[in-house]
Design a protein that fits this description.
The structure is a single chain. By secondary structure, the protein is α+β, with helices and mostly antiparallel strands. Helices cover about 40% and strands about 15% of the residues. It has 20 helices and 15 strands. A five-stranded mixed β-sheet has the order 3-2-1-4-5, with helices on both faces. Strands 14-13-12-15 form a four-stranded antiparallel β-sheet, sandwiched between helices.
Length: about 600
C-alpha cells in the first residue's frame, strides 16, 4: 500500500485529437461506494479515436453478491471467490492508468458512479483519491443526441450500431463507451469546431440550449432561417466588409445554421467569437454530404477564412503497408495512404488488430525487419538476429533469391486478403476457439474483436486498394434529407471524373438513363480503363488537392461503406450491371 505517484492534471488547452482518454467501467455489489464493493473493472485507452490499450480484472469484493446483481452481470460469488482483492490489484490498476507520458483524463457513461467507486476503493486500499478531470458520455448524449428518448448505454449502443457480446460486463461496457465517446469527439470537432480538452470539459456541464430562444446577436442580423433548405451543402459566413470569415459543411443546412444563432450557451469560445463578427450568411446546396465535404475543403483552400483552422484533419485509421514497389518489401503499420506504389490493407478500427496481424506475419513469413528503405544485398553482409531466430530469410546477404522472397510477399498478401484456409481470418478463428475451450474467455473476446475488425477490412479491401492503386469504382451517395435523391461519383484512375445528381423520378426518364449510360460507357468501357497503368509512376500526375480529395473520400467511405454504395469496376463488369447497381433494376442497354 502507499500513495500514488504525483497525479498530473491533463493540460486543458491540449488538442482533443491528441488527448488520451482513459475510459473505464466498474461492476459492483450495489449502488453505494461506501457500503458496496467492486466486482470487476474494465479500462480502455483511446487516442485520436483509436484504442491504444486495455485492461480488465475480476475482483473479490469480500462481501456477498446479491442474486439480482448476478442475474444482471453474470458475475457470481463462485466466479470471484478465488480472484484478487482490490488492494492486491490497486497497484496494477494505477500503473496502467498512469502508464505513458500523457496526463490522465477519465471517461465513462454516468462516470460519477464509477469514479465514486474507484476513489472509495483506492482510499480503503491506502491510496490517494484521484482528482483528475472526467468526461461523461451520458452528459454529452443529452447535448448531442437530444432526439433520442433514452440516453442509456444500451440506447446509445443501438443508435450507433455497437454490438457487445456481454452487456453489464466491465470491459465490454468500457469498449462500447469508448466507441460512443469517439463518435461524440468527432462530432464536436467537425461540427462544433471544438479543439481543446478545456472546451469539452466545459461543454458537458453547460445548459442544454432551447431552440425557441433566439440569441440577441441573431436579432440584429438580416438572416431568414426559414428560407434555408434542409439539404446538404456548404455555407459561408461574411463580416461587414463582405469578407468570408468562415466556411463550413452540413448534412442539413437549416439545422446547422440554426444551431449558431439560437440560444448558444453550448458554443465553444471560438464559435461565440465567430458569431459576433457575422453580418451575413450565404450557402449553396450539394447532392450529398460527401460532395459538401469536398466542396468545403476546396473552398477553404481557396479563400483561407480567418476563423477556419488549418484544413481539417480527419480521424486517422491504421493500415498495414507492404512496399511492393521495392525489390525486397517490408511490412509495417502506417496511418496515411499515399500514391507511392505500395499495397495498403485496411483501414482497421484498432491498432490492436494491426499489431496482432503483423506479429503473426513476422512469425509465419520471413520478410525483413531492417529499417533500410532500399536494400542493397551483398554476400559479405552478416545476417541479423532475425535470421538467427528464423524470422527473416536474409535477403541482405543473398541467402534467399529475389524470386523466393517474392513468394513470401505473395504469401503475406494471401494471408491478409482471403478467408480461406491459411488466411488470417481462419487462423484467428482457430485461436479464439482454443482460448474458449481453455476457459480463457477474456482473451477469446479480444481475438473476437480482431476477427470483427478484419472481416470489415476484407469487405473493404478492394475499395481501399481502388483508392490507393488508382483503379476505378462508382460511389452512390444518398441525400441524408431525402429518401428519393442520390448522387453518383464516377472515379477513374483515382480521380473524380464526373458527379451526377438524380432523383427517383429519373428512373422513368429515358433521356436521363441513356445519357447516364453514355457517360458510364465513355469513362469506363470505351476509354483507357483496362489498359496497363503503372501506379508507381503516376505520383507526379497528382496535385496536392487531388491527394487531399482521395483522403476525404477514403475517410467517408470507411464510415459509410456498404456494398450497395460502392461498385468496383473490373474487366467482368457490364454496363447493364452498372445500371442495375445505380437504379436497382435491370436495363437492357447496348454498349
Amino acid at each position: 500500500m502507499g500513495a500514488t505517484k504525483k497525479i498530473e492534471s491533463s493540460p486543458l488547452g491540449g488538442l482533443l485529437q491528441e488527448t488520451v482518454f482513459t475510459v473505464f467501467d466498474v461492476e459492483t455489489t450495489g449502488l453505494s461506494p461506501d457500503r458496496n464493493r467492486m466486482t470487476e473493472i474494465g479500462i480502455v485507452k483511446i487516442k485520436g479515436g483509436e484504442v491504444i490499450d486495455e485492461y480488465s480484472a475480476l475482483i473479490n469484493p469480500e462481501q456477498f453478491i446479491p442474486p439480482e446483481i448476478t442475474r444482471l452481470t453474470g458475475i457470481s460469488n463462485e466466479l470471484v471467490y478465488d480472484k484478487p482483492k482490490f488492494g492486491e490489484l490497486a497497484g496494477d490498476i494505477m500503473n496502467f492508468m498512469f502508464s505513458g507520458e500523457e496526463s490522465l483524463v477519465l471517461a465513462g457513461h454516468n462516470v460519477k458512479f464509477d469514479y465514486g467507486f474507484l476513489n472509495a476503493s483506492l482510499h480503503r486500499a491506502g491510496y490517494n483519491k484521484l482528482g483528475v478531470p472526467s468526461v461523461c458520455t451520458a452528459r454529452l448524449a443529452r447535448r448531442l443526441n437530444r432526439q433520442l428518448p433514452s440516453k442509456s448505454l444500451d440506447s446509445l449502443r443501438r443508435h450507433f450500431g455497437i454490438h457487445s457480446r456481454r452487456k453489464h460486463r466491465a470491459l465490454d461496457d468500457a469498449k462500447a463507451t469508448a466507441v460512443i465517446l469517439t463518435h461524440f469527439l468527432e462530432q464536436l470537432i467537425t461540427e462544433h469546431e471544438f479543439e481543446t480538452l478545456e472546451e469539452l470539459l466545459g461543454f458537458q456541464y453547460r445548459k442544454i440550449y432551447d431552440d425557441s430562444k433566439i440569441s440577441a446577436r441573431f436579432k440584429k442580423l438580416k438572416i431568414d432561417l426559414q428560407s434555408v433548405p434542409q439539404k446538404p451543402g456548404v455555407y459561408y459566413m461574411l463580416n461587414k466588409k463582405g469578407e468570408i470569415i468562415y466556411i463550413g459543411k452540413a448534412k442539413n443546412l437549416k439545422d446547422r445554421l440554426s444551431s449558431y444563432f439560437y440560444h448558444n450557451v453550448s458554443h465553444s469560445t471560438k464559435i461565440r467569437k465567430l458569431v459576433r463578427y457575422v453580418h451575413k450568411v450565404e450557402w449553396e446546396t450539394t447532392g450529398s454530404e460527401l460532395s459538401a465535404l469536398l466542396a468545403e475543403s476546396r473552398m477553404i483552400k481557396s479563400h483561407k477564412p480567418r476563423f477556419n483552422s488549418a484544413i481539417k484533419s480527419y480521424r486517422k485509421f491504421p493500415f498495414i503497408k507492404i512496399d511492393v514497389q521495392r525489390a525486397y518489401p517490408r511490412v509495417y503499420k502506417v496511418y496515411e495512404i499515399i500514391p507511392d506504389g505500395a499495397r495498403y490493407y485496411g483501414p482497421f478500427s484498432s491498432s490492436y488488430t494491426v499489431n496482432t496481424l503483423i506479429e503473426r506475419i513476422n512469425k509465419l513469413y520471413k520478410l525483413r525487419k531492417c529499417d533500410d528503405k532500399v536494400l542493397h544485398p551483398a554476400k559479405n553482409k552478416s545476417a541479423c538476429m532475425y535470421y538467427e531466430f528464423g524470422q527473416c530469410s536474409a535477403p541482405c546477404n543473398l541467402t534467399v533469391t529475389a524470386a523466393e522472397y517474392q513468394k513470401e510477399v505473395k504469401g503475406v498478401d494471401k494471408f491478409l486478403t482471403t478467408d480461406t484456409e491459411g488466411g488470417a481470418l481462419r487462423l484467428l478463428e482457430r485461436e479464439m476457439l482454443l482460448e474458449s475451450e481453455s476457459m480463457n474467455f477474456e482473451h477469446a473476446s479480444y481475438i473476437r474483436d480482431n476477427i470483427s475488425d478484419l472481416r470489415k477490412v476484407l469487405l473493404n479491401i478492394e475499395l481501399t486498394n481502388s483508392i490507393v492503386e488508382l483503379q476505378n469504382y462508382i460511389i452512390k451517395c444518398s441525400n441524408d434529407n431525402s429518401k428519393e435523391a442520390w448522387e453518383l461519383f464516377l472515379i477513374v484512375n483515382g480521380k473524380i471524373a464526373k458527379t451526377i445528381s438524380y432523383e427517383k423520378s429519373s428512373i422513368e426518364d429515358s433521356d436521363f438513363v441513356n445519357n447516364l449510360a453514355e457517360d458510364i460507357n465513355y469513362h469506363y468501357f470505351n476509354g483507357a480503363l483496362f489498359k496497363d497503368f503503372v501506379f508507381s509512376k503516376a505520383y507526379h500526375k497528382f496535385k496536392i488537392d487531388e491527394i487531399d480529395t482521395l483522403k476525404i473520400i477514403s475517410n467517408w467511405v470507411y464510415r459509410n461503406y456498404t456494398p450497395s454504395r460502392i461498385m468496383k469496376m473490373t474487366e467482368k463488369t457490364s454496363i447493364s450491371g452498372v445500371m442495375k447497381f445505380i437504379f436497382g433494376k435491370t436495363y437492357h442497354i447496348l454498349g
